[in-house]
Amino acid sequence: PIVVAAQYGHVYVTRYLLEHALGLAPTAGIEDVRVKDSDVTTLLLEGILGDNIENTIVQYVAAFTGYLSALEACIERGTDVDGKFENGETLIFAAARGRQFHVIEYLVEKGANIDVKDNRGRTALVLVSTASRYVQTAKLLIELGIDIHIPDLHGRTALHFATSRHLLDMVELLVESGMNVNARDNYGKTALGTAIWYVADDKVIPADRLNCVKYLVGKGSDVNITDEHGNTIVHLSASRRQLELVVFFVKCGVDISVRNSCGQTVLHAAASGADEAIVRFLVELGMDVNARDNKGRTPLQVGFEENLTNMDLDLQATYDMGRYSLWGWYSDRLSSLIFLVTHGADVNIKDEEGRTVLHLAAENGQLDAVRFLTGNGANIRCRDKKGNTPAALAKKAGHVHLLQYLETKDAKPLHTRILGVFGVRYLK
C-alpha cells in the first residue's frame, strides 16, 4: 500500500502508513520508487532511514532524487557503491536517471565503476542516450571517463539509441566525443541504418529525422554499408516509402545496383513499399523492371505479394460502401504496380514455383488486379509447376466472381473507374 500511495503522491496517506509501521520491504522494486511528488520522496527517506538504512529502496531513492546526506549515510554504513538492484542497475544508473550530477560525481569519487552494465548490457551512458533531457547527464558521464564505445547485449551503442530516436543534440555530443559512426550492431546496422530503420512509413519526414541523417552522412557515415540481410540504406528507405531519403542517398553516391541477400534490388524494395514516386524515380534512373531475385520474382511480383495478397477485397464494393480510407490505401499501393506494368514489367514472368502475378491475383481474389493484368497481356491459361491455372487457384480459394470472369476469358482493359483514380498517364 505504501508504494501505491507514494507513486500517486498521497503525502498524508504515506505518512499514516509509515507511522503505523507499514514500511517498505527490503526487496521492493526500484521501478516503484520513482514517485511523482518530491514531498513524498522526502517523507519516504525520513520515515525509513532510521532502522532501515540497508533497505535498497533508501539507497536508490537517495541517488535518484539527489538526497546526498541519506546516500552518504548508507555508504558510511557499508552500502556497496557498485551493488546491483534487481535489474542490474547500480547507484550510478539511479543518479543518471534522476539527472543528479552531484550524486554522480560523489559516487565516482567513492570509487563507483562508471562503466558497469545492467542486465541488458547497457552502461549508464547507453541508458541516458534515449532522451534529449539527458544530454547534460551524458556530457558529465563522458567527462568523468565513461567508455563511450561499450555496446549493449545486441551490439547497440549509445549512438545507435540516440539515432533511433533522431536526437540530434545527443547524436552531436556522442559523435563529437569520438564515437565511431560506422560501428555496427549485431544485426549489421550502423547508426545511420538505425536512423533509417526507425523512420515511420509516413512519406513526410520530420525535420529532426532528416537533419539527423544528414548530420551522420556529413560526419563520415558509410552510405554503402549493408546490414545482415544485405540491405543498403536505400533498400531501407525505399521499403519505408521515404522518397526524400532515397533521392538524398542517390545524390550521395549510394550504389543502387547492390542486391541484398535475397537477390533483391532497390526497385524490389520500392515495389515492396509500393510508393509510386519512388518506383518512378528508380525506373527513370534505368533500373531493370524485370530483375529477378533468388526466388525468381520481379519487383512486380514482390510488390504484389507484399501489398495485395491476403486481402479478400472487391474494390467496387469497397468504393460503393464509402470506405474511402481503405480504398485510398489499396489504390495507392496498386498505382505503383500499374506504373511498373505500363513501363515494361513483364506480367508473364514466372517465379521459382512457376507462378505469374496473375496466379497471385486470382488466388487472392483481386478482381480489379486480374482485369488490369489480363488487359495488359497476362496469359490466362499459364500453369504453375503444380499444373494450376489462375482460374484453378481462384476456384480452390472460392472466389466465384473472379472465376466466372476468367472462364469467360473476358480480358478487358482496366475499368474506367480505376483509370479515373490513377490518371490517364498510365495509358501513355
UniProtKB/TrEMBL annotation:
It holds the Pfam family Ank. It comes from the Eukaryota. SUPFAM superfamilies: Ankyrin repeat. InterPro entries: Ankyrin_rpt, Ankyrin_rpt-contain_sf. The keyword DNA-binding does not apply. Keywords: ANK repeat, Repeat. PROSITE patterns: ANK_REP_REGION, ANK_REPEAT. Gene3D superfamilies: Ankyrin repeat-containing domain (1.25.40.20). ANK repeats lie at residues 87-119, 154-186, 229-261, 262-294, 353-385. This is Putative ankyrin repeat protein. It comes from Anoplophora glabripennis (Asian longhorn beetle). The gene is Y381.
